[in-house]
Every structure is written in C-alpha cells, then in structure tokens.
Amino acid sequence: MMKEASEFRPAVLIPCYNHGATLGRVLEKVSRLELPCLVVDDGSDGENRRLIDEAVAARPFCSLERRAANGGKGAAVMQGVEALAVRGYTHVLQVDADLQHNLADAPLLLERARRRPEALVSGLPVYDESAPLGRRIGRAITQFWVRLETLSTDIRDSMCGFRVYPVSAFMRVIRAGRPGGRMDFDIEILVRLHWAGVPMEFVPTRVVYPEGGVSHFDYLRDNLRISAMHTKLMLEAPAHWLSRLRGSRRASGGWEVQPERHGAPGIRILLWIYRRFGRGVFRAVLRPVVFFYWATGTEGRRESGRYLRLVRGFAAARGVMSSPCEPLTSYRHFLHFGEALLDRILAWNGEFSLSRDIVLDQGADRALAVRGGARGKLLLTSHYGVPEVCRALAWRDAGTPVTVVLFEGNAQAFRKELEKEAGLSRLTVISAADFGLGTAAELESRIRRGEWVAMAADRLPAGAARARKERFIRVPFLGRPACFPAGPYILASLLDCEVDTLFACREGNRFRVSCAKLADRVSLPRLEREQALKRFAEAFASRLEEQVLRQPLEWFNFYDFWAEPRRKSPEPMRDLGRPLQK
C-alpha cells in the first residue's frame, strides 16, 4: 500500500458529474490505496447528488466539494487540485468516476511519481474491444496535433484522465494561463506542462468502456472545442519553439548546431508523421514547421542565401543552367533539408531498395560492384542529398557491412535517435571524437575483410583544431577558396584501399546515385605530402561542384563554408600522421 511521507504526500482527486451510480464502486477501489480522497461534484442533478453524498459520507477517508453549476471536468479538476494544494499535498492522482480506469494500476503510477516527484505520470491506455472506434480515431488525430505543438513525442497519450500531477508544477501552469475547463482540459494541461519543462512518464494501463456507462463527451461540441484548443495552442507554439531553440544554442554554440537543430524530438516527430500519415501529409506539415525554422534561423537563412547567390553566379560564369524547374530560394533550401532528414532515417533503416528507389548514373554500377575476396573500399560522401542510401547498395549482393565515420556533434545526437527509431544496430557507426591509431587499425581490418567504410569529406570536424595546416586544405570550390578536411585522405593512405566518391540525391520519387573511383590507392610521400593532399582534395571538390550545380538545393551547409578556420581545440585525428602497425 502507498503510505504518506513528508516529501511525498499524495491524494486522490475524482471529478464527478452525474456519476452517482458508479462513484461508490470507484471509491471502494480507491480505499485500497489508503490515501485521502477529494470528490468534486461538478453540479450533478438531484438524484445523483443524493447518491454522491451517500457514497462520500460512508467513507471517512473521503471529502466532498460541490460546485453550484456544471463547469466541466477541467474546471472541477483545477478546483480540486487547488484545494488539495492548500491542504499541503504534493501530488494528486486524478481518477475518473465512470469505472473506465483500472485502479489496480494506481500503485504503479504512484510509485513512479514517488521515485520521480518532478514528473507527471500518466496512464497509457490499452484498449479492448469495448472502445468506440470514433474515440480511437479522435485520439490519433489529437496525438498528431500534440506532437506538432510540442515538436516531440514525449506525450505518448494526451487524453487519458488517469494521471498523477505534481501539484507545484500544476499550479504554476494554471496561474500562468488557465486552460480550458471542459473536455479539452486533459489535452491542454499536458501540452502546457510540457512547454513548462515538466518531464513525463507513461505507464500502460487497461481502459474499458463499461456497458451502460455514463459519458458526457458530446461529439459535436467537444470536438469543436478541442479543435479550437489546438488552434489556440498552435498560435502559441512558435514562441515556445523559439524559446527552446534559443536555450539550445546558448547551451551548445558553434556551427555544429546550425541548421541541424532538429534534435531528438524533431527526428521522432518526423518519423511518426510519415509512418502514420504518409509522405503527402508529412510534406504538408513540413512547410509551416520549416517556415518557422527558416524565419527564426537568422544565420542559417543568411548563409543559405549567400551560398545560393554564389551558385547562381558561378553557374552563369560557366554557362551552366542550375535547377531550372525550381527557384533557388533559402526557404526551398530549408524545405529540401527537412525532407532529406526523413530520407536519411528511412535509408538508415534499410527501407530503400536498389530496384525500386535508386537510379545509378553511368559507371556507378561497376564502381559499386561487390567482388568476392577483394579488399573493401573507402566511400567519400558529403552533406549533399542522402548519401545514406549507400546502405541499400551495399546490401544488394552479399550484404556488405558498412562502417560510417561521423564527426559532427549534431550527428551523434542524430545517431542516438536512429538507434531507437531506425534500426541502426545493423550498421557500425564510429565517432571521430577520439579518433586515433586504434580506430584506424580497426577500420583497416574491416577493409581487409571486404567491408566498406564511409565518411564525409566536405566539412571540417566540429570542434577540431584548424590551425595546423596539414589537417585541412584550401582548394577552389564554386569559384572561391574553401577549406576541405585532410583527414579522409590521410585515413585512406593508412587503409591502403580503393577510394570512391559517392553522391546521392532525390529526384522525384527516386534517388540518383553517382559513384566513381577517385584513386586505386592514396599515397602520401613525405616530401610531397601537401601537394598530394591538395590533388585529392581538388578532385573531390570538383566532383562535389558538379553535383551541386545539378541540384543546388541538395547541399546542406548552412554556415560560412568559405570562412577561414579560427578555433583551436584538441585534434580528433591527431595520431593519423603515424603509420599503422599491420
């Protein structure tokens, strides 16, 4: 049984309206918790008032507050929590009076709340065949809007009234702006608690709709009320999104969070919308969300516009027509990035097939052939399009394993989400944060077994020391000198394998893949090291340049790519100048 303690003083709250026939049975189950209980009668009629009075009077642990007129479930809950807060209770277990909630699970919710008192703990409904179809559809629609309003999947269910509120957080939220008082309350209070930073936990619990049960949900009026509530929340949501983004930038700083500000919640909601509603709805939702990021992302918007102007000028100087079917605007640039995020997740999860989704440029099929017994290869990719489709290419024959080397801090956050959402366990991902001889030796053994290693070669590692000349090379790109990393070519010389360039981007409903050999082997003679590094970097930059001119909106660097490196910090690939012990 749940016992009271000074640091955790829970009580039970039951909002009640014309539930005289069922309240007694609910209170009988509540009595097993050995907790005080407050019933708030929300203006019930005469016969129900009598039954409610009798049920409460028969149970000493129970007290009653009565509202003069019916104001709605939310109004009753807010009045009840306020009354319990005055009495010194720290947490409130909300229970409906209609027998839908399985009170055998109440100790589980209370124990979670005791262990994590700052969190809201809610039931996660598990329905049986008694649940009306209309209710299930309505819940799915509401979940869509809640995830959009919070840009997260933290709220796993927003309509279950079986939950434990932390009283102090609850009171702060309703004093800041009182939520709707009727059937919209359960949803709105969770969104506002989430905006206030209250963590949430969900416990699966069986929910039933008893035959002859009393429901006060009016399908027309309450659905209109809930629709109005979502409209109100969506109007308020951008301010909360912006506040969270500002906090994220203050906490981390640096180019590595620009513009890849999606973070864990963004990744989860992208995938959820696609899975539930398909790509058409995903694209429709993407537009206003991307517009917000575009409007608030001053630096990313500025650098995107500067890059696109450079592309137009360079293309005009070379007499090349770039992307004639789509205007080169920074907003469209952001839109392409948003869709590419979804494609990256699906590609990591192996959901693209060679026959259905991929078109190979001339020569790519030969370059990507998997030859039995041969050494593996190093694939140099970029932040152009969706290079992750290399997984579909590698899996087409004998299931060639792929090891991906990631540099950016934001890519590591992306990786963590992929582990949960997209089955990343079937790939090997290595962080370059502490890249050294041991990691290089492991990659060399994989190459010896015929596996592939993929890494981006168009961006300097986030947080890497950029003052040492041998770690980056300035080569022409789109008509101006730009810094490209030397690390991929140093690694290639140690791996002693074939090096290919791989570019993949969406064109309509399929991906165009270009793959070509850059070198049979990379040799870096000591006396000609700088010249050799520059040759390889120039060759890669030239191939990337060709791709960018074909699809300018598919290259996703939203910072000043042409700026001189300025910061000094520990070098992730500091040991790669020394030979491997084979």
UniProtKB/TrEMBL annotation:
Keyword entries, A-Z: Acyltransferase, Cell inner membrane, Cell membrane, Membrane, Transferase
CDD domains found in the cross-reference section: DPM_DPG-synthase_like, LPLAT_LABLAT-like
Keyword Membrane on entry: yes
Domain of life: Bacteria
Alphabetized InterPro entries for the sequence: Glyco_trans_2-like, LipA_acyltrans, Nucleotide-diphossugar_trans
Residues annotated as domain Glycosyltransferase 2-like: 12-170
UniProt KW Iron-sulfur keyword: no
Cellular compartment(s): Cell inner membrane
Name of the featured protein: Glycosyltransferase family 2 protein
